[in-house]
Design a protein that fits this description.
Layout (H helix, E strand, L loop, with lengths): L7 H4 L5 E5 L6 H11 L4 E5 L3 H7 L4 H8 L4 E5 L7 H11 L4 E6 L2 H8 L7 E5 L5 H4 L5 H6 L1 H7 L3 H4 L4 H15 L2 H4 L7 H13 L7 H7 L4 H13 L3 E6 L12 E5 L2 H7 L12 H20 L4 E6 L5 E8 L2 E7 L11 H6 L4 E5 L4 H6 L2
Parallel strand pairs: 1-4, 1-5, 2-3, 3-4, 6-8, 10-11
Antiparallel strand pairs: 6-7, 8-9, 9-10
Helix pairs in contact: 4-5, 9-16, 11-16, 14-15
């Protein structure tokens, strides 16, 4: 078992519903069942795929819902996004059984977040479980061991079953199944997605442009979609825990680019599966993109698990000066430049230093990346 950063015993408290988001197969069910089996409380675990549970919790029938929970101290619903009206059902339980611990998991935040948002206002605590983070692995692996496995993380990613897989063949087969059968299941089943090919074409285009600035108009044109549809697909991919959008930072609209965005995958392995590229690092021409995607995704995991509040961006001027990634937090600006090969001296851009003299700037390489992805 790999220790996870989220503690359901802390997240779930009487009087509030604990909502656990995360992509499929990131370990939500394992985390949930492990908590239930060790909590020492009388629990009931159901799945949102069960039609009977869908009808019951979606019915808003108070007496039936209370009878369903009678005698239990914990009610847990896995894949709760499958239940229409789940927010109202959970609200009734929270309001009428304040002694009850309630946990709901969901692999598509566009469904579950929308369902529980308004009904559970002030009545919920939320967390997102990502694929295994470097921070979590550091509890059992030291810096040397993690660095030794860095090529593996860059190519195959860090879903739980991949971290413990023993062969290249096993990892590739898992990723092909994940990307082809599981990961996009919620997205392609969404009521507004009528054809899978345009979304998959868009996702593949994003995969080839990881870390590069792209405009929505350019993406839409290349996959022959209207801009509104392309934007909706990207939003669904982001809410489905596949990609992350990073916008441009600016306090001077005349010189700084804000009309474009960068897109990263939440997991390197998924990115490589989308384009069916599993070559080792010595046989690739996209190592810079892999390195940048890895660092950004790991930083996002770390920020989520350690409650680092603030926004993240990239920065570029129309003259071409740029910074890969920056954070605005605690009243300050922190800029980071990502370099896989640390073979030349790099300085912060002159325009950056002039515009933001108080900002912190740092180059992240293979030599110092550990603190960036493990210590906030």
């Amino acid at each position: 078992m790999i220790p996870r950063a989220i503690d359901l015993a802390t997240l779930s408290t009487p009087g509030k519903a604990a909502i656990l988001y995360g992509p499929r197969r990131a370990g939500k069910t394992t985390l949930l069942t492990g908590y239930l089996q060790g909590c020492g409380l009388r629990y009931r675990l159901e799945t949102g795929d069960n039609i009977r549970i869908q009808h019951l919790l979606g019915s808003a029938d108070l007496q039936e819902i209370l009878a369903f929970a009678e005698g239990y101290q914990v009610i847990a619903i896995d894949e709760a996004q499958e239940i229409p009206g789940i927010g109202t059902g959970l609200k009734l339980l929270v309001d009428h059984r304040p002694d009850l611990r309630i946990i709901a998991t969901g692999s598509s935040s566009f469904d579950l977040a929308g369902a529980v948002g308004e009904p559970l206002t002030g009545r919920k605590r939320t967390a997102t479980l990502y694929p295994i983070s470097q921070m979590e692995l550091s509890a059992t692996l030291n810096r040397f061991d993690l660095k030794e496995r860095l090529p593996e993380f860059l190519v195959y990613g860090a879903y739980p079953e991949l971290v413990t897989a023993s062969s290249r063949k096993e990892r590739i087969e898992y990723l092909e199944e994940l990307a082809g059968s599981y990961l996009l299941k919620d997205l392609l089943a969404h009521e507004r997605i009528r054809a899978s090919r345009p979304m998959l074409d868009l996702l593949k285009l994003v995969a080839f442009q990881v870390g590069s600035e792209v405009s929505l108009n350019e993406l839409a044109t290349q996959v022959r979609l209207d801009v509104k549809t392309a934007g909706r697909y990207l939003d669904i991919l982001e809410k489905g825990f596949v990609i992350v959008r990073v916008g441009g930072f600016s306090r001077n609209l005349r010189t700084e680019v804000t009309s474009k965005a960068k897109y990263y995958f939440l997991d390197n392995g998924v990115r490589n599966a989308v384009i069916s590229q599993y070559n080792g690092l010595d046989a690739r021409n996209d190592i810079g993109a892999l390195w940048e995607n890895f660092l950004v995704s790991e930083r996002i995991k770390l920020r989520g698990y350690t409650s680092v509040y603030g926004s993240y961006y990239f920065w570029r001027t129309y003259a071409g000066q740029e910074i890969d990634y920056l954070e605005e937090r605690d009243g300050g600006l922190f800029g980071f430049e990502f370099k896989w090969s640390d073979n030349r001296r790099v300085k912060p851009p002159k325009s950056w230093v002039e515009a933001y003299p108080e900002a912190v700037w740092q180059k992240i390489t293979q030599e110092n990346y550990f603190d960036f992805v493990v210590a906030a």
